[in-house]
Amino acid sequence: MSSIDLTQFQATFFAESREGLDAMEAGLLALEAGTANGETINTIFRAAHSIKGGSATFGFRAIAETTHLLETLLDQVRGGQRAVDAETSDALLIAVDVLRGLLDRVEAGDSNTQGDASLNARLEQLLLPAATAATKKTAATVQPNPLGWQIRFFPQPGMYATGNDPLRILRELAALGDCNTCCDVSALPALHDLDAAQAYLGWNIELRGDISRAAISEVFAWVEDECALEIVALIPPVVAIDPIVAAVADAPIAATSAVAAHDHGDSSIRVAVAKVDALINLVGELVITQAMLRQQSAHLDPGAHDLLLVGLTQLDRNTRDLQEAVMSVRMLPVEFVFSRFPRLVRDLGARLGKKVRLRTSGEGTELDKGVIERIIDPLTHLVRNAVDHGLETPDKRLAAGKDAIGTITLSASHQGGHIIIDVVDDGRGLDRQRILAKAAERGLPVSDTMSDNEVWKLIFHPGLSTADSVTDVSGRGVGMDVVKQNIAALSGEVDIESQVGVGMRVRIKLPLTLAILDGMSVAVGGEIFILPLSYVIESLLPGTDDIKRIAAESRMLRVRDEYLPLMAMADLYHIPPATTAERSTSVVVVVESEGRKLALEVDELVGQQQVVVKSIESNYRRIHGVSGATILGDGRVALIVDVGGLSRSLIRAA
Amino acid sequence: MSTETLRSIDSSAARGTRPEVANEFLTFILGGEEYGVDILKVQEIRGYDTVTRIPDAPDFVKGVINLRGTIVPVIDLRLKFRLSDVRYDEFTVMIIINVARRVIGIVVDAVSDVVSLTAEQVRPAPEIGATVDTQFLTGIGTLDERMLILIDIERLVGSAEFGLVAVTAH
Amino acid sequence: MSAVRILAVDDSASMRQMVAFALRAAGFDVAEAEDGKIALDKARNDRFNCVVTDVNMPNMDGISLIRELRQLPDYRYTPMLMLTTEAGLDKKQEGKAAGATGWIVKPFDPEQLVATIRKVMG
Question: Which of A113, A526, B141, B145 is such that its CA lies 20 to 30 A from the CA of A23?
Fold first, then answer.
């Protein structure tokens, strides 16, 4: 084993190999779908080749073995000796999965990782018919080495042009045993005809020692084709003598594959996520400090401190710019999430006997990394649902006059301060009656007069799966309710639109980032709360006649021609009133979430500011009605209102 | 051997120490009694300052504070242990504890000092008459004339009664 | 005497880093490139005493690189080694035809690599 420690390079190898496997998978899918170009197979081959080389070097045998088989297969494809049929494609895709698993296990330190025997056997099977007999070298009969060898070594004139130096070769020979060298100058021309770059000398060497022929051949391995070479045993113990005659190396130069215009794109560096997070934290602190400075300087006399105030305004701008720049570091294109779906849709469709094509748009739309990580599960569930329950089987589709191949479209876009992600399918749509029936069965309050929208919302109730049979794919107790919870946890919203026989659209609305938000600070009973601006519609001072008392505990507020539920935040958060101010002089902030408007009564509006969102859950726990906390300019903690959560719980309570 | 003593020997064995070697405790006063917690779990000590209230929290959860950018919940142990005479004055102190991957602050009457106790100086807590449920105690430490009630702060903080474990969805 | 400068070319970052590390530890000066094109550029702008290159790389593979390098007057006689996992004869022949000095078969022990370079550089 090497005395050089290779483990430090392993992390890079694992990361690279994973990327390589992703590239392989994408390439294989493209080949299947017929959207591959000439470069695709090369990319796939190179990926396998790299992984094989690295895994062999680092001693990861199981991975090396499997990748070697893969590489051989792919080489044949690349060389046109093998077409990628369904069976091959399948085997290759499974190989990708197996390799991913192996990589994980090896990385986790499982040094005894065994390859997947059935996969290897399958790959070997595929290789059999087209395989040129890769016969192993027959073991050389073990002969005792002769006393020595007589070697004739006559380089061709052009040997130097390959960077080979006869002197080096002679030295190597000398290291094997006792050398008696005689130089053959017969080919040496007259001085004025001498070309210093050409080799004219030859040597006859008597090499004595217990040296095998193989050891000598190895010394000449690189230059076999560039010299005349004879190796004769001095006292042959066994009769066979084979002089190695120089073959005139005139190998046709195989046409190299056209180098596709493969743009590597901008240069980039890998950065550990922890470093980025630390950076964002620091910038967050800066935002808080800057807010504090702004607050402290608010009452300064501009005349006396104009330079200071100018400086602080500048600081404000700088901080904002820095913050945007830093936040964008964590932004990743939603492509990261979308990229896993082609494979999923393909496999699922095959398993369920449905023909599916996946379309995506807006892959470049960027999302915060944290949001991306948490959107994967809900999106996966929605896509599975669409394939499983949404899309009909090909014959049913044809009978309905639709294309036998169902289409699922994933799209992402920016709208306002949000990201909109849509999962659309052209399947059968939601069955209103079925849902109502199921809901009634479960004892939920439903009526036939409910709007479509309200009916669709019912499917977010736990336990309300209207599937005929629970396929192991999506009906396994992980339901739409969990999807909704996950998205709500991201301060997002889910909305459904559906039309029977036409299809369904699930729309997810997410905040651009979890870490910073624009908020309106309000005072409630001596405490400060933050209302995320993205939910705030307006604020107003209601007149007493605008407030109607419906029941003992319920009030409504008239805003133009609407009546909205009116809640005092002090009541919602159980805060004893700090002042004895009359309710009628309170300020109302109208917020909207999931299509429902709510009027919140507060003591006063304090201001508007960007706040850094801090977690309460990490040290405490999730608090109902609170989505996080922030630190104000004066160092105090303010709670951030979970508008969506409040709105939902009020509906439940109603 | 009682389970309490076994446990304290176990924990010192877990720390890789021999029984003769001492463990250090931060001692503090609560309702006239002296208590101690493992110094390794103590992050810092602060004065009691303005706390932001949390809605719907049990009375002993006073709220949260800003600890250099992290939101830290503040638990008043005197209220948790139902002690009378709870004051918030210039001696009131908050001990910032780091346990079970959480940072929390606990409010006490006053902090005393840091003491070293060997395993021999720790006895099992008696079953009756303790303000704190004995399952949360690692034992009673004796040092000269002082009797120190040693709290297993990790266990206490993690217990359901402490209220930090999230209530499942309503 | 100034250090021997080696150009290490491989699209796999982990292999490249490992090769560079091993050679630097042995006292060689090493520059890296992730494909043939970049390597060719570097070779033009700088002077290397030896080139170690992988064969399969995007933009320009190792064999093409060697072929291109041999056209440059400074590199006509420079030792150039291919790093290859292919035990097949054709790649080696192709490489030699393009002007490669020799090859090193992957997987290799870093010490093997160093020993080979030492031999080649005399």
Answer: A113
As its CATH architecture, domain C5-121 has: 3-Layer(aba) Sandwich (3.40)
CB neighbourhood size of A367 (10 A): 24
When scoring B46, B50, B52 by the number of chain A Cβ atoms within 10 A, the one with the most, hence best to mutate, is B52
CA-based torsion, A292, A295, A298, A299: positive or negative:
negative
Here the ipTM equals: 0.86
Q: Which of A369, A373, A374, A360 is nearest to A407 (CA)?
A: A360
CATH 2.40.50.180 given to domain A516-653: yes
Query: Architecture of B3-160 per CATH?
Result: Beta Barrel (2.40)
Pairwise CB contact (< 8 Å): A639 & B54 = yes
Q: Assign a CATH topology to domain A333-511.
A: Heat Shock Protein 90 (3.30.565)
Shortest Cα distance from B49 to chain A (angstroms)?
Answer: 10
Domain definitions of chain A by residue range: 7-130, 148-233, 273-330, 333-511, 516-653
The series of mean pLDDT values per 10 residues for chain A, 654 residues long, is 64 87 90 79 87 84 87 83 82 90 85 76 74 40 72 90 89 88 86 86 88 87 86 59 30 26 54 81 81 81 85 87 82 86 90 90 83 87 90 90 91 82 92 85 82 85 58 51 82 88 91 77 91 90 85 83 88 73 72 86 88 81 85 86 83 58
Instruction: Give pTM, 2 decimals.
Output: 0.52
Check: CB of residue A333 under 8 Å from CB of residue A366: yes
CB B10 within 8 A of CB B2: no
| CB atoms inside a 10 Å sphere around CB A529 | 25
Cβ of B71 within 8 Å of Cβ of A285? The answer is no
